[in-house]
Structures are given as structure tokens and as C-alpha cells.
Amino acid sequence: MAEEYRDLYCHQPFYNDRYGSGSNGFTFSGSSSSAYTQDASLTANSSFHNLQMLDPPYMTFTEILQGSNDNNALAGAFGLSRTSSSEAFSRVKDEPKSVVVGAGDYVGGSETPATPNSSISSSSTEAVGNEDSSKNQKENPMKEAMEDGEDASKKETITKKKGEKKQKQPRFAFMTKSEVDHLEDGYRWRKYGQKAVKNSPYPRSYYRCTTQKCPVKKRIERSYQDPSIVITTYEGQHNHHVPATLRGNVAGMLSPSMLAPSLSLQDGPMFPRELLLQIPHMYNYGAAGSTSNVYQQNFTPFEQLQLPDYGLLHDIIPSAFHFPKQEN
DNA sequence: CGTTTTTGACCGGCGC
DNA sequence: GCGCCGGTCAAAAACG
């Protein structure tokens, strides 16, 4: 199971100030089945701190996007310099208030059932479970995110081919420190399920992209370790672009290069890059589907989101900050 | 009235 | 084989 979480990288959080003192930053961790081989060996004791300690220089957001030719484009879009080892993602104000930590798990296209993810679930859950580490709230929610399984298209797969093993879709998880569960990411989602999470008082919600034929799903759950953290796991790749109809139009924030078809609709594994397109919700903060104006946001140009580097995650995450409570 | 959410049932995988 | 578990289905309800 440990390997499930290997290849975690820490990234600079970005901050998105909103709502007065509010801000929302995040760090990004990516992993891939093989591209990266650093072994973080996160255990139940893993903490953000540990993550931060990952030996290899943590990847930067843009680095994660590597493998694509859009690096620079993207970096540019985000107003980042891809040389920095730790890139600030964004922020409008200072005050690191909220943080998002991400974990990536790319299991795309592997025919081999390599690691039985499912088995991980229960065990890892338990591992993390039970404790009440009130102080140690940096347990490692990522684990929670990754714990569950892979079995993406179960029935669908079945109908198509029964013997065939549900093939794993690229997955990408990240944590967001927010009181809002469902973060706006520019896409439209339909909830199709909700399940109680073992050892957690918070349920996990399952969403599917509403665009026809789009296979992307996402799960959202709140870390019981640190209820202020929301764990979002994306699975699959959008076969379309961000709908330009949402409030505020997230797509409008993206540079043409980011939206260019070449970006993701055609070739190969573009897992991180593709999924990152969904990240803009970090900036575009607000409650998904929220009707509250409180969360309405003025979009901030990426250029203004440049951030200075921040210290260790554990120095950031604990920072207190609260969005007004609100459910979608 | 079309779309989304809710929620219990159902399913397949897995461990015992 | 059985029960647990995560994930999904789908009918009904809620929503706009």
C-alpha cells in the first residue's frame, strides 16, 4: 500500500485570497505509475511534514506537467517561472490561510492489475483511522484520498466486457483547505452517489462529469483528520473542454494554450496536465453550485497570482483560516 | 418540465 | 460461501 502513495511531491501552495482574510492556497503532489520513482513511502504516520521532506526536490506544478510540450505555456499561463523549485501558485494577498495539498496517482493504462488498490482501502483507512490525533492533524489525508479504489468503470466495463478488468483511469487527488466541499472547477458535475466513509464522520460524494460521454468522475470527501481539508480525487480525463457557461467562466481564465485541443484531447497520457485544468477552481474559488453571492468571486488574472515561496507545509497547513461554513 | 440530488439497493472484489 | 466494503445504479424527490 505504501507504494500507492509513493511518488508524492510537495509543491508550493498558492494562495487565493478571497473573502477578506480568506485565501486558498494549495500544494500539489503528483505521482505517476512510472514516470517518477521516488518513494515517499507514506505510511499511516505520514504527515504533510513528511511530504515536505521528500527528498527529491519536490516537483513544481509545471514540472508535473512535464511530458507535455505545454509546460511553458502552462507555466506562463500561471505566471510562473518554471525554474523555481518551488513555485508559488497564486495569491492575491499574503497570509497563507488555506492550503491545498495534492496527491497524484496515475495508473493509466496499466494492463496489469499491479497493485490491488482495493485492498489498500480498508487497511489504510484503519491505519489512519481510530486515532484522534487532534494535534497531529496532518496525518496524511492523502492517504484517505488514495485509499479507495480504482475500480472506476465497473458496470460499464461489465457491459462491454465482463472478463476484462476494469481498467484504471488516471487519478489525481489533492487536498484543499476549505470549508466548501465541492469546489468549483469549471466543469459541470452530477452527483451520483454518496457513501459513508469508514472511520470518518464525513461522507464521500461521487460525481460524474455531466458532459455526454465524458468519463471523468470525481470524489469529494472531507478529511476527518482535519475537517478543514477537503480531498478531491479526479479520475479520468475530460474529452471536452471546460464549459464556458459557468458563472464567472473559468475557461475565460485559461490561456488559449491551456484550452487548445492539442493540450489534451488527443494524445497519450496527459494525466496531470489534463487534470490540472480543473485546478483553476483554486483561484476561482467559490462553492460549486453555490447561489451565495458571498462566494462570488472576482477573477484574478494569473499574473497577479504570483506568490513568494512558503516554508514547510506544516507551517502552513495549521494556519487557521476559515471560510464561512457552507454546504452546497 | 428538465435536470440534479438523495438514498437504499445492488454489484463485484476481496479476505476469511 | 459469506460478509464486508467501495462504488454505482436508479427511482423518487427536490430543485429551478
UniProtKB/TrEMBL annotation:
Chain intervals for the UniProt region annotation (Disordered): 103-171
SUPFAM superfamilies in the record: WRKY DNA-binding domain
InterPro entries: WRKY_dom, WRKY_dom_sf, WRKY_plant
Alphabetic keyword roster: DNA-binding, Nucleus, Transcription, Transcription regulation
Annotated GO CC locations: nucleus
Annotated Basic and acidic residues bias: 132-161
Pfam families associated with the record: WRKY (PF03106)
Every WRKY domain range: 178-243
Sample GO molecular function, one term: sequence-specific DNA binding
UniProt key word tRNA processing: no
Protein location: Nucleus
PANTHER family found in the cross-reference section: WRKY TRANSCRIPTION FACTOR 71 (PTHR31221:SF358), WRKY TRANSCRIPTION FACTOR PROTEIN 1-RELATED (PTHR31221)
Name of the protein in question: WRKY domain-containing protein
Organism for this UniProt entry: Fraxinus pennsylvanica
Origin organism lineage: Eukaryota, Viridiplantae, Streptophyta, Embryophyta, Tracheophyta
